[in-house]
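Please go through the sequence and fold tokens given here and tell me how the chain folds. Record follows.
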Amino acid sequence: MSQLKFNEVQVGDTLPPLALEPVNRTTLALFAGASNDHNAIHIDIDFARKAGMPDVFAHGMLSMAWLGRLLTLWVDQRQLRQFAVRFVGITQLGHRITCTGRVVEKFEADGEKRVKLELQTTNQYGEPRVVGDAVVALQ
């Protein structure tokens, strides 16, 4: 990862997209173990169906983790100043998620040069699943 410079980044610039493999049961089980989030709606098809869902679906925080990976592929995690998301759709089994980001603002705060990013995950149909924003410090 190269060190990005504040004066080289412009409003409208996009982060390199992060395209992921289709969501599968193994991914959900591994994330449940890693995060200690064993909510049955994400790992037990019978429970999910009793709750009115056709099948299990991805943890919201898994999608946030993917956006975190998008960010840390762009800058070192120590440069992250703010990161927030809103869940706007369910990520179903088989969805092919792509994470994207775009610079929307450049500013200075607390003696640092920073950029604000808009982030989102979309499925293969172009439907947003998670939207958010982040602020990172640049030199």
Q: What stands out?
A: Residues 13-23+60-137 form a domain with the Thiol Ester Dehydrase; Chain A fold (CATH 3.10.129.10). The mean pLDDT is 97. The radius of gyration is 17 Å.
